[in-house]
C-alpha cells in the first residue's frame, strides 16, 4: 500500500443493467412493497438489550462477589462475558458502525461507542472494516483482514513460509487471542500506520489525538474489566487473570469462526489486479468481486444467525452493508436468484460445522502452497 492512496486498485465498470443495479433495485422494491425501513426494528433493539445483558450482568455478578468463592461459577461468568463480547461485536456495534441502526447519524454514533466500552477503537475499526475490507475483500496488501504479519497464510497470493504447513493446527490459537491483541497493542500500531497512509484525514483526527483517545479508552477498559474484579470479586488475582483470558479466548475464537469461513474458502476468487494504462485494476466490477469472494453458511440456523448478527449471510452483508442485518434473511432469496440470473456464483455452506471444516481444509492447502484462486 502506498501512502496517500486509498484507491490504488480500480474496479471495472459495473456497466448498464448490471448485477449490482438489478439486485439493488429488487431489494429497494422489497422494502417499498412491504412498507418497512431498512434500518433497525423492534427485533434488533431487543437483541441489543440481550447482548448487552449477556456481557454486563455477569460482570456485575463478578464485582459483587456472587461467585462466593466458587471457581466454577466464577469462570462461567467470564465465559458468559466472552459470549456477550462476541455478540456485541457481531450484532450491536457492527451495525452501528455501518450506520444501519437509524437514519440519524448521532444514534448510530452513540451505539457504536459500545466498541470502546469493550476495549476497541471505533476509528480504526471503521477504516479496517468499512473502508479496506468491504472495498478490497481478499486483495492482498489492501484487505487487512487477511494480513497476519505472515503468521498465517490466508491468501494464495501471499508468500509461503515453512511453518505455514502446520497452520491448520495452530491458526485456532491465534484466532483465540485476536481480541486480546486488539485490546492491548493492535490499535496503537494500526493508528500509526493509518496516519502514514493518510487514512486519518477523513476521520478528522491527528495522530496525537488518536493516540490519546486510544490510551484513555484502554485505561478505562482495563480499570473496570480487571482492576475492579481484582479488588471486589473476592477471588485470587490469578483467578481474575485466568477469567479475563477465558473471556478473550472465547470471544476471539467465536468471532474468528464467524468471519473466517465467510472469505477464506476454496470457492473464493482471490483475484489480483492487472496493470492497464499504468494503473492497477480489477477485471471484475466491485459487486462481482464481492460475491466471488464471499460465502454464506448455515442459512437455516436461526439461533446462529441471531447470535452472529446475520453475518452468516456475508454475501448480503457485503452487498448491502447499509441495511440492518435483521433484513438479510428476506433479502437472501432475492440476491441468490439474481446472482444465478447473471451467471454468478452464490457460495453457501449448509451448516456451520461444514463451513468450519471447509475453512480448515483451505488453511491446510494454503499452508502447503496447493491452494489456487478459484477459476
TrEMBL record:
<keyword id="KW-1133">Transmembrane helix</keyword>
<keyword id="KW-0812">Transmembrane</keyword>
<feature type="domain" description="Fatty acid desaturase">
    <location>
        <begin position="71"/>
        <end position="349"/>
    </location>
</feature>
<dbReference type="InterPro" id="IPR005804">
    <property type="entry name" value="FA_desaturase_dom"/>
</dbReference>
<feature type="transmembrane region" description="Helical">
    <location>
        <begin position="237"/>
        <end position="259"/>
    </location>
</feature>
<feature type="transmembrane region" description="Helical">
    <location>
        <begin position="52"/>
        <end position="80"/>
    </location>
</feature>
<feature type="transmembrane region" description="Helical">
    <location>
        <begin position="210"/>
        <end position="231"/>
    </location>
</feature>
<dbReference type="InterPro" id="IPR012171">
    <property type="entry name" value="Fatty_acid_desaturase"/>
</dbReference>
<dbReference type="Pfam" id="PF00487">
    <property type="entry name" value="FA_desaturase"/>
</dbReference>
<feature type="transmembrane region" description="Helical">
    <location>
        <begin position="169"/>
        <end position="189"/>
    </location>
</feature>
<protein>
    <submittedName>
        <fullName>Acyl-CoA desaturase</fullName>
    </submittedName>
</protein>
<keyword id="KW-0472">Membrane</keyword>
Amino acid at each position: 500500500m502506498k501512502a496517500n492512496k486509498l484507491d490504488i486498485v480500480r474496479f471495472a465498470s459495473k456497466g448498464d443493467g448490471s448485477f449490482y443495479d438489478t439486485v439493488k433495485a429488487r431489494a429497494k422494491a422489497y422494502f417499498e412493497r412491504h412498507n418497512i425501513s431498512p434500518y433497525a426494528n423492534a427485533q434488533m433493539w431487543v437483541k441489543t438489550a440481550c447482548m448487552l445483558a449477556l456481557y454486563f450482568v455477569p460482570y456485575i455478578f463478578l464485582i459483587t462477589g456472587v461467585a462466593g468463592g466458587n471457581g466454577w461459577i466464577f469462570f462461567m461468568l467470564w465465559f458468559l462475558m466472552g459470549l456477550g463480547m462476541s455478540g456485541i461485536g457481531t450484532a450491536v456495534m457492527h451495525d452501528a458502525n455501518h450506520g444501519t441502526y437509524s437514519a440519524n447519524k448521532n444514534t448510530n454514533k452513540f451505539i457504536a461507542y459500545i466498541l470502546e466500552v469493550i476495549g476497541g477503537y471505533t476509528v480504526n475499526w471503521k477504516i479496517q472494516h468499512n473502508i479496506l475490507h468491504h472495498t478490497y475483500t481478499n486483495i492482498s496488501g489492501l484487505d487487512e483482514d487477511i494480513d497476519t504479519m505472515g503468521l498465517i497464510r490466508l491468501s494464495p497470493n501471499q508468500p509461503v513460509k515453512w511453518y505455514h504447513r502446520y497452520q491448520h493446527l495452530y491458526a485456532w490459537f491465534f484466532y483465540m487471542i485476536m481480541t486480546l491483541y486488539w485490546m492491548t497493542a493492535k490499535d496503537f500500531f494500526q493508528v500509526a500506520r493509518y496516519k502514514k497512509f493518510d487514512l486519518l484525514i477523513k476521520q478528522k483526527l491527528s495522530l496525537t489525538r488518536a493516540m490519546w483517545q486510544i490510551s484513555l479508552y484502554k485505561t478505562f477498559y482495563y480499570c473496570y474489566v480487571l482492576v475492579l474484579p481484582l479488588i471486589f470479586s473476592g477471588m485470587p488475582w490469578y483467578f481474575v487473570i485466568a477469567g479475563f483470558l477465558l473471556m478473550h479466548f472465547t470471544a476471539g475464537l467465536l468471532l474468528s469462526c464467524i468471519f473466517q469461513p465467510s472469505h477464506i474458502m476454496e470457492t473464493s476468487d482471490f483475484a489480483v489486479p492487472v496493470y492497464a494504462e499504468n494503473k492497477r485494476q480489477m477485471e471484475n466490477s466491485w459487486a462481482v468481486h464481492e460475491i466471488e469472494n464471499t460465502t454464506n453458511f448455515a442459512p437455516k440456523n436461526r439461533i446462529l444467525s441471531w447470535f452472529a448478527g446475520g453475518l452468516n449471510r456475508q454475501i448480503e452483508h457485503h452487498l448491502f452493508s447499509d441495511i440492518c442485518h435483521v433484513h438479510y434473511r428476506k433479502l437472501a432469496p432475492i440476491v441468490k436468484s439474481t446472482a444465478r440470473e447473471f451467471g454468478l456464483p452464490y457460495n453457501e455452506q449448509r451448516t456451520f460445522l461444514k463451513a468450519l471444516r471447509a475453512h480448515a481444509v483451505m488453511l491446510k492447502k494454503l499452508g502447503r502452497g496447493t491452494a489456487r484462486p478459484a477459476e
